[in-house]
Amino acid sequence: MNPVLQPRPRTPITWSTALPKAAISGFATVVLLVAILALTKSAFFLLVVIPLGGIISVWLYARGKDPSEIVAGTGARVGAVTGLFSYLIYGIIVAAQISSQKGIIEETMRKAIEQAVARNPNPETQAMMNQIMTPEGIATILAVSAVIFLFVFLIFGALGGSVGAAMVRRNRHDPDQL
Fold first, then answer.
1. Which of 10, 44, 99, 176 has the CA that lies 20 to 30 A from 165?
2. How high does pLDDT run on average in the chain?
3. What is the Cα 48 distance to its own chain's centre?
4. Vertex 152, ends 56 and 67: CA angle to 5°?
């Protein structure tokens, strides 16, 4: 077989090196995310900051390594782990906010649901609102939201890690940029 066409053996990720860098990047991602959310009150920045955390974690992981070892799959896995760390740290912050401001959050949810029901006079909508506003309904909403956010953090972290891997490989000819 032609040596050019042979696949290169995949270099395994050195998790003992990658995990601390992913954790640091995850923490930095949450700090940046909380600061931006406090200033802008826009969740759109969640979709920008999380990939940035993946990029940073891959950049930190690639320092001192052969850039040809940092492929898109490596970047995606390191980025996804960064997303997981970010999710866990951000989840602790959100859980603390929810537990300390439970009454305010319930009232805000109730008003939003009542406004939605007022726009739709269907009696089934009123029955659904009554189910949602029970403690079990609120717990279900929070649990489903938590799972959705987990996937958002993982996917966007992995995307950022893939972009970070491409950036590392592109700059492999200039080691001063790493």
1. 44
2. 86
3. 10
4. 30
Spacing of C-alpha 99 from chain mean position: 22
Express each pLDDT in 141-161 by its tens digit: 889 999 999 999 999 999 999
Q: Which residue has the higher pLDDT, 165 or 101?
A: 165
Residue tagged 């305010």 (tokens) = 104
pLDDT of residue 55: 95
- Count of beta carbons in the 10 Å neighbourhood of residue 165: 28
3-state helix, strand, coil in the chain (%, to 5): 80, 0, 20
| Side chain identity, residue 130 | N
Dihedral sign, Cα of residue 82, residue 83, residue 87, residue 90 = positive
Kindly state the average pLDDT of the residues 48-53.
94
Give the number of other CB atoms < 10 A from CB of residue 129. Answer: 16
3-state SS, residue 173: coil
Query: Cβ distance 112 to 87 under 8 Å?
Result: no
With beta carbons less than 8 A apart as the criterion, state whether 33 and 157 touch: no
**From the CA atom positions of the chain, what is the Rg in Å?**
21
Q: Which of 1-10, 104-113, 150-159 is modeled with the greatest confidence?
A: 150-159
Tokens 């740290």, residue located: 89
Of 18, 133, 161, 148, residue with least CA distance to 94: 148
Give the CB-side neighbour count of residue 123, counting CA atoms within 13 A: 0
